[in-house]
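In the current project phase, the collection of sequences with tokenised folds has grown. One resulting record follows, to show the layout:
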Amino acid sequence: MRLSRFVEWGLAISLLANLGLGCQALGGSVPLSLALTAVPAAIGIWLLARCRDPFQEAQILGQTSEILETIGDAFYALDRNGRFTYLNPKALTQLIKPPDQLLGRRFLEVFPEAAGSPLHVNCGDVMRDGKAREFVGVSPILKRWKSYLILPRPDGGILVHSRDVSAEKAAEQALLAERMKFGVVVEHVPIGLLFVEAPSGRVVLGNVPAKRLIGRSANDDPFPALVVWEAYDESGRAIEDQDHPLAITLATGEPAELVARYRRGDGTLAWMRVTTAPIHDMDSTVTGIVVALVDIDAERRSAEILRDGEARLRRAVEDAPHPIMVHADDGTVVHLSQAWTSATGYDRDDLGTIAGWTRRAYGAEAETVQRAIQSLHHLDGPVDEGEKTIRASDGSLRVWNFSSSPIGRDATGRRLIVTMAVDLTERKRAEARLLLLMREVDHRAKNVLTVVQSVLHLTRTDNPADFIAAVEGRLASMARAHTLLAANHWSGADLRSLIVDELAAYGGPGRMVIAGPPVAIAPEAAQAVAMNLHELATNAAKYGALSTVAGRVDVAWMVEPPDRGGCLTLDWVERGGPPVAAPEKIGFGSTVLRQTVETQLGGQLTLDWHPAGLMCRIAMPADCFSTSGVTLVPEGAVTVPAAADAAPGGRVLVVEDEALTALALEQVLMEAGFVVLGPVGRIEDALDILGSIRPDVAVLDVNLFGQDVYPVANRLVEMGVPFLFCSGYARLDGINDHLRRAPHLSKPVLADHLIATLNTLLGAGREDKAVA
């Protein structure tokens, strides 16, 4: 903007006058920036006034205008009425108004929001009393921090100089905030801090922890206390005055540190670390000392507790009943249980390091395992390492399952891992035995099914009823052999029990004599021997001695001495029956006898069809039997209930979860004249039937889809209904006395045996019950 000569002349005079008044008002001082801008402008105007040459006059006027136009701060002038008379470019930029909206107009007319602001008040005060004013405040127009200098003009107006100091103000506030933060940090750090002046030793600053530790504040001048502070070393010797850290640093200018038991402000002795560090100026002269007071009493007690804890850990590990190892990240085995060395056979000295352990236990895999163990120290929680095969000192292999977990650090800072092992060797062997047993069970089950298939194929008869009876009898014989083997954990079947079970249905006073030493038939031979006994008993019941009341059977066996072959010889002799003759054709029984004895068992069979009765000798080699560890079974035959007439219309509840078995039971019972309720295969269904119908008797399978049938049995006891158990279990465990009194028939059960038992339960002479 180019000013008129009149305006330029007045402005120069005003600048010079304002400069003088400003110096007087501000105590002889004026901002350097204002001086640097006002003086050149005033000099230019002065030169202009002296100049008489028109060309020079124009040149000076242009230079003065350029100075004011390019000044970096805002300048504007107001007359005595508050009207704008001049604004430099910076002022126009800040006020965001064009010149034609400002020049000649009153300040409050353009900026009414400034009314009552510090800027407005100070401008009015300068116009009234002619005294310059300087202040810092927020611009009512721009809302930013401004530094204002308001100078009076000779004509009653004012000159306003303003500079944006928002950045300086923000920096000042940030510095103040940092100082406050630093003060808060110093005051609240958990250690005592003192700033000591050197060389006087005067304490100029101290925080609250320092006051607490020393027992006095910085204003109390704790320097003498720091120099003569009561302290004792590890042995209890008092620390000399010249040995205190502050005294050392004051004397030498070097840092110093002392750990000792100091007398705290509360009178107690506590371990503390006192450290002093000098503060140097540019000439490396010590001008101050920083004193740090750290109460380490709790730390020292924690260290003692840690040492005690490590001792307890060592005792706990060494006495643990399981293999336990504590090892550090440097490869050292810190603690080792006695169980670990006992199980492996290695000495504790052999296992001082992880390398020593892996080299002995893992052989060629030692390095791989050692790296895996080292990686455990980077864990932040427990880990199951799984199963590993280790080698014991005697060369035997054992299977251990390892799990590890970090347990912190020891007193030296080493990271510790505890590794626990579970010896799975015996369990693995048991699992192998179980697997072998499962394979054997599978093998035996398939063999049984094959034998059943063979029985079905080889049984010949034109009468279906005879066919069913023959097959049932042979299967029942096999089942009894299996029951005996299961009772003896498949170690063998007692020969006397096999004979008694087969002849029980035909027993009676004087009808049979059984004699012989304790002998157990091998599991592999038990089924064949049982089948042979069944065929002999069936033949005797149909055609031989047991087919008449006067007939009898003598069964005797003996074990030959080793020098005579050591065989088991069994003699079957029938007497008192009808005359006997050799059969015209070889039947199923004879075929089974010869095939099983001579081919399967590797023995000898002799059949003598003597008219007085059949005589049969079976000789079995030593691998078919055992005489050691066999308990003598008391003599006496087990008899079955005598057959009784069925009670037509009697209602039988059948609870059986195997569909085919349930259908067979239903058919047998219906053919015997019973009314069948069910069959049902679930406990809930059986209880539902009992809730609406009262049966006369019940047949209960014990296991129904994994659940015991006992709730149904207990309900029958409450109702007074008799029942029997029909199960594949050899015996029933965990039942009460009421249930134990119920008959227990082992599957497979003969139809006649089942009917006879049910009729016995119903009671001889009991009145028939009509169907509800």
Remarks:
- Residues 302-423 form a domain with the Beta-Lactamase fold (CATH 3.30.450.20).
- The chain has 24 helices and 31 strands.
- The chain has five domains: 5-164, 189-295, 302-423, 481-626, 651-762.
- The longest helix spans residues 425-458.
